[in-house]
Amino acid sequence: MNSGEYIWFNGKLVPAAEAKVSVMAQALHYGTSVFEGIRAYATPRGPAIFCLTPHVRRMFDSCKIFRMDLPQTPAQLSDAIMETVRANTFEECYIRPIVFRGAGSFSLDPRKSPIEVAVITIEWGRYLGPEAIEQGVDVMVSSWRRMAPDTGAPMGKIGGQYVTSQLITMEAADLGYAEGIALDAFGFISEGSGENVFVVKNGEVYTPPLTSAILPGVTRGVILTLCQDLGIPVREQPLLRDFLYVADEVFFTGTAAEVTPIRSVDRIRIGSGRGPITKRIQEEFFGITEGRKPDRHDWLTYVNVKKSVESMESTART
User: Which segments of the protein form a coiled coil according to its record (predicted)?
Assistant: First the structure.
């Protein structure tokens, strides 16, 4: 992976090769980390970070759930993310802010170990493959389930909880699928290993509620808003597994997956693979993220705006 020249680490930009972590870090042994996945898109106005504010807000929510007090404010972390993208001169990239417990103690009380913060940027294309956006992907319902509501914190994007996601991903790959969909503890549809799920039936869009142990996806929220903009009815409710099999369309959403159609579930074909509602949502989503359509909800944060302002101020002084 190309992470660029710099990583923001504990308050400052450092050369990527110097951003090192001790093998005694508590997070390495117990998964005590909180992270985010964010994208910066190439636009006619330069790179723009998509939904920066809600991503940072969710990161602070995850830290609160996991009893982690960040040394930065949301504004300072947002500035660090902008600074890292700008320093690495990526036109578009995937951004990984991470908060983790460093070396201090092997105690299962993570609060005995210090908090460290990093921001990493990498060049990363379509998560499920360049052809997935148009052709769709083949998925399976996994034998692995999402956590019960009293066995974890599904609203937190916490590193240790992604062991189940890795098991889902490995199972799907070993059986020849692009991805897996997990059920919740009660047998209802939950989410993919790292994506939220939407199902289309008779012109309406359905998606599992937070009570189905899903992560409150930022892109999920964007899609709910776009459906409202487009006049597409949406229902958030528990969904049976077999609802996938009789769906007209199914698609994934997420920072990595963006809006990816699902063409089959458990070898059962889903419509044409990319139905008309999925296509309409994709057109709106990519039109906004790529700067081809108006950003009517202020989802884009342009990386070079601050630099332009500084340049103007410098010119005025001279």
Answer: none
Residue environment code for 66-85, b if the CB has 16+ CB neighbours within 10 A, otherwise e: bebebebeeeebbebbbbbb
Enumerate the CATH 3.20.10.10 domain ranges in the chain, comma separated.
132-289
* CA 121-290-3 angle, 5° bins: 10
Residue 302, both tokens: 């342009």
| Tokens standing for residue 108 | 């299962």
Listed range (121-125, 250-254, 280-284) with the worst mean pLDDT: 121-125
The per-residue pLDDT for 58 is: 98
Q: Which residues are tagged catalytic? A: 157
Identify the pLDDT of residue 306: 54
**Considering only 25-39, 81-95, 149-163, 296-310, which range has the smallest mean pLDDT?**
296-310
- What residue spans in the chain does CATH classification 3.30.470.10 cover? 6-122
pTM exceeds cut of 0.85 = yes
Please give the backbone phi and psi of residue 316, each rounded to the nearest 5 degrees, phi first.
Answer: -65, -35
